């Protein structure tokens, strides 16, 4: 039985906390709307001295090396391998199955009511 009382106590505590926290947020928001913040002067940045630009370094031009021409190697030609021919397989002819003919069923006549 103590468990049921404990559960209801926590439910009551949760509802109370939710109600008080929402009221406090509304009150703080109202206070923020009423308060005026004084405008502060914008600070001026100190003047920095200009950085001198460095001259672009000039590198001496390097001549391109001349490579001797290398002869291309000749590859020997290989004969193409021939595949052996396989004998053609003969597929036996299977006769089509025929459905047996069934006699036509006789439907009895329904007697007519006079």
From TrEMBL:
Keyword Signal attributed:
yes
Keywords (A to Z) from UniProt:
Signal
Which stretches does UniProt call biased (Pro residues)?
95-108
The ranges of region (Disordered) come to 95-114
In the record, which residues are listed under signal peptide?
Answer: 1-24
Q: What is this protein called?
A: Uncharacterized protein
User: What species does this protein belong to?
Assistant: Datura stramonium
